[in-house]
Amino acid sequence: MSEPARSPETSIFTSAAIKRNPAWVQLLGLCPLLAVSNNVVNALGLSLASAFVLLGSNCSIAVIRSIIPSYARLPCFVLIIATFTTCTVLLLQSFAFDLYLRISLFVQIIVTNCMIVGRVESFASKQPLPKAFLDAAGTAGGFALALLALGAIRELIGHGTLFAGMELLFGPQAGGWQLTFSDNEQGLLLAALPPGAFIVAGLLLGFGNTLLRKFSNGRELS
Amino acid sequence: MVRGLGSLLGISFCCALLLGLTHQLTTARIERNQTAHFWRQVNQLTGIDAHAFRVEWQGDVWHLCNGLALVRGETRGYGGPIHLLAALQLETGQDGTDQIVVRGVSVTRHQETPGIADFISQPEHPWLQRLIELGSDRIGNVEAVTGATITSKAILRGLDDITHYPALVRSRCPQ
Amino acid sequence: MANLKTRQIMLLVLLALFPGMIAMSYFYGMQFWMNLAFASAFGSCIEALCLRLQGRSLRLELTDGSTPVTCILLCCALPPGTELWIIAIAVTASIGLAKHLYGGLGNNVFNPAMVGYAVVLVSFPKNLALWPIPLDGTTAATALTSFKYRQGATVDDIWTIDQGFGSFGGYGWEWINLCFVVGGALLVALRIAQWRVPAAMLASLAICALIGYDNGGPHSLGSPMFHYFSGSTMLVAFFIATDPVTHPVTHRGQLLFGCLVGCLTFTIRMFGNYPDGTAFAILLANSATPYLDKRLVAARG
Questions:
Q1: Does A9 reside within a domain?
Q2: 3 state SS for C229-286
Q3: Residues on chain B touching C122 (C-beta within 8 angstroms)
Q4: Domain spans of chain C?
Q5: Mean pLDDT for each consecutive 10-residue tract of chain B (175 residues)?
Q6: Which structural domain, as residue segments, surrounds residue A214?
Q7: Which of B3, B24, B27, B30 to mutate to test the interface with A (most CBs of A within 10 A)?
Q8: Cβ contact, residue pair A102, B26, below 8 Å
Q9: What is the pLDDT at residue A212?
Q10: How much is the ipTM here?
Q11: What angle do helix axes C66-77 and C112-123 make, rounded to 10 degrees?
C-alpha cells in the first residue's frame, strides 16, 4: 500500500499540530491550558493571542536568524517574544476590552510559555521563513485544538452551555451563538472548577493516546 | 564582537519601534474603552445615568448629590490588591441611627486567578448580586464562594471597611 | 483462591456495615434501601461495562463483592433524599473514574466511595446539604453546618434551638455512628481492618477538638464528643480510612495516615468551606500514601 507522497510543507504543519502537539504530546504550556479552558470564549481568546505571538516571533526570528549572535540568542528571543506579547495585550485592550478583562493575566504570561521559546530555539532560529511560518502555524493550531477541546468539554459539562459570551470576541451579534443544554446553566460544577481541568485534561490525554496507539498499530500491520 | 553588539542594538531598536507604533495606534482606543467601561460601571452601580454628574472625587468618595455616594476601596485578595467601587446610600433605621446600605458593588481591578475567582469582575454574578441592598451590619453574614474563599472573603472585608463610616457618605452637597 | 478471599472479606465488611445500615433505615426509612438498591444495580452495570471494555473476566471480578461495598458506603454518605441521577453520577465517578481508570480493585490510589461523594458534593452542594428530620417530615441542615454558622451563639443555645442536634451529637447520626463503631470493632477484632488507622484518626481528632474547645462558648470549635458523633466520623474512621488499598503498608505510616485524616477532618470542618471534611481529608491523605510508604521504607532501609 502506497501512501500518497506528502509535500514537506504539509508534513511540517501536521507534525507540529498533531504528532508533536504542544499540549497533548509534549505537555507544554499546561498552566494557561488548564486555567483558561473553563469555557470556549476564553479558550478561543487565549489561543488567538498565543497564535499571534507564536507567528510573530517565529517569523521575525527566522528572518533575522543570521544576525542574532549565538551567545546572546536567548535574551534576543525573549525580547522579541515579550515585544509581541505586549503588542497582543495592547491590541486586545483596544479591540476586545471585555475579554481582556477576563483573561488579561494569562495573556501577559504568554511571554513565559515554554512552548513558544521551545519552537523558536529548536526550529525557527535554524530554518528559513516559510518553514518557520508553517511550523508556528501548526504549533498554534495544535495548541488551539487542545485548548478548544478542553474548553468546549468543560463548558458543556460544567455549565451546560456552549459558546456562551462569544460577544466578548465577535461583537454583539455573536451573543445569539450560545447553545444551552440545561435549564439554569447548571451542570456538573466540578468540571468548571480547577480540579475538573485536571480530570478532563487527563481523560482527554488518555483518550488521545489510545487513539494514537490504535492508529499506529493499524499502520504497522498494513 | 562589535558586529554582535550592533545587531543586538538593531534588534532592540526594532522591538522598541514596533512597541511604540502599536502603543501609538491603540492608545486612543484603549482610553476610550476604559472610559466607556468606567461609565458603564457607574451607571450599573447607581442605577441612573450618571453622565449628568461631574466626576469629583474627594479622596475616595464621590458624592452624586442625590443621596448616593460612590466610594473606592481596596482590599487584599489572593493574587494581590482588589479595587472595589461601591455605590452607598445612607439610610436612617427605625431606631434613628444612620446605617449605610450597599446599592451596588463592582470590582474595578484585580489579579485573581482566571477561571476560579475572576467571576468578581462580572457584576451580574449571583454572588455579587447578593451583596446589593445589604446593610453594613449584615455584610459579615454572607457566605464565601466555594473554591474562591480567599477572594470572596477579601471582598466582604473591603466592603465592610468602607461601609463603617456613615460620616464619609453623608452628603456634603448644598441642600 | 485470592478472589475467594476478597469475596469473603467483602462479605464480612457487609456484615459489619449492617448495624449502621439498620440504624440508617430506622431514621430515614425505605428511601435509604431504595437508594442502596439503585446504587448497587447501577454500580454493577458500570463495573460490568468497565470489565467488558478491558476484556477482563466478568465472572471472577464482578462477583468479588467490592462494588456493593463501595455503593453501600456511598449511600451512607449521601443524604437519603438525594435524587437518583445524582447517585448515578456519584456511582459512575466511584466505579469508573476512581476504580477502573486506575486499573481496578487493588490499584486505586483514592478511595472510590469518597471520590464519588466528593465529585457530587463539589458539583451539587445544595442538593446534598439537607438531611431529613423524621419527627416532622422536614429536612434541615446537619448539626455540623448549623454549628459552624451559628453566628456567636453559645453551644448550648444552638443545641436547643436547632433541629439538627441530638442528645450528644448530630440528630440521627449519633446513633448511626455508634452502630458503625460496633461494626468497626468487629472488623478490627477480626483483623480485617487495621486498628492503627482509626485509633490515630480518632485520637488526633480529639486532640484538635480539645485545643479549640472552650467549654461551649460562642467561639468554641466543638467538643471531641460532638466531633465523634456528628457527621460521618465513625463511618469514615472504621470503614473508609481502613481501606487496605489506599492506606500505607508500614505501621508508622498507618499511624501518620490516621493523624493526617483526623487533623484534616477537623481543619476542614471548622475552617473550610464544607461542613463535613471527612471526604476531602481522606482523599488528601490518600494522595500522601505513596509518599508515606516510600519515605518510611527508605528511612528504614
A1: no
A2: HCCCHHHHHHHHCCCCCCCCCCHHHHHHHHHHHHHHHHHHHHHCCCCCCHHHHHHHHH
A3: 146
A4: 2-123, 176-300
A5: 84 92 92 86 77 75 78 84 87 74 85 70 82 80 76 87 75 58
A6: 28-221
A7: B30
A8: no
A9: 77
A10: 0.78
A11: 40
Q: Residue B57: count other Cβ atoms within 10 Å of its Cβ.
A: 11
Asked, for residue A12, whether it belongs to a domain, the answer is no
Q: What is the 3-state secondary structure (H, E, C) of C109-142?
A: CCCHHHHHHHHHHHHCCCCCCEEEECCCCEEEEC
- Determine the residue among A159, A183, A186, A188 to mutate to test chain C binding: the one whose Cβ has the most chain C Cβ atoms within 10 Å: A188
Angle CA A70–A73–A76, to nearest 5: 145
Report chain C residues whose CB lies below 8 A from the CB of B146: 122, 125, 273-274
Written as one letter, the residue type at A202 is G
pLDDT band at C156 (very low <50, low <70, confident <90, very high): confident
Q: Residue with C-alpha cell 488528601?
A: C284
pTM of the model: 0.78
Q: Quick one: CA torsion of B75, B78, B79, B83, rounded to 10 degrees?
A: -20
B29 touching chain A per CB within 8 A? yes
Question: Which residues share a beta bridge with B62?
Answer: B70
Of residues C133 and A15, more confidently modeled: A15
Cell numbers given for A178: 450560545
Find, in chain A, the residue whose alpha carbon is nearest to that of C125. Answer: A189
CA distance A35 to chain B (A): 6
Give residue-wise pLDDT tens across range A147-188.
999 999 998 888 888 888 787 777 777 777 778 777 665 677
- Looking at residue A2, its pLDDT comes to 42
Query: For residue A1, what pLDDT band results from cuts at 50, 70 and 90?
Result: very low
- In contact, C213 and C228? CB cutoff 8 Å: no
How does pLDDT run across C71-129, given as a tens digit for each residue? 999 999 998 888 899 999 999 999 999 999 888 888 889 999 999 999 988 888 777 77
B111 touches chain A (CB under 8 A): yes
Q: Chain A: which residues have CB within 8 Å of chain C?
A: 187-191, 193, 195, 199, 203, 206
More confident residue, A69 or C136: A69
Across the interface, whether the CB atoms of C119 and A190 are under 8 A apart is answered yes
Give the largest Cα separation in chain B, rounded. 82
Report d(CA A168, CA A165) in Å as an integer.
Answer: 6
Say how many domains are in chain A. Answer: 1
Distance from CA of A190 to the nearest CA of C (A): 5
In a domain? residue A14: no
What's the pLDDT band for C275 if we cut at 50, 70, 90? confident
Q: What is the mean pLDDT of residues A27-44?
A: 84
Nearest to A35 among B11, B18, B114 (CB): B114
Residues with Cβ < 8 Å from A107, sequence gap 6 or more? A45, A46, A49, A85, A88, A89, A92, A100
What's the pLDDT score for residue C283?
94
> Per residue in B128-157, pLDDT tens?
888 888 877 788 778 877 667 778 888 888
Show residues of chain B in contact with A52, CB under 8 Å. Answer: none
Taking an 8 Å cut-off on Cβ atoms, the answer to whether B30 and A64 are in contact is no
The distance of A3 to chain C (nearest Cα, Å) reads 32
- The verdict on residue A181 lying in a domain is yes
Name the region of C215 (left: φ>0; alpha: ψ -120 to 50; beta: rest): left
E-strand ranges in B45-151 read: 61-63, 68-76, 81-92, 98-109
Of C122, C151, C274, the CB nearest to B141: C151
C75 CA: distance to closest CA in chain A (Å): 19
Separation CA A101–CA B112 (nearest Å): 11
Per-residue confidence (pLDDT) for residue A109, from 0 to 100: 84
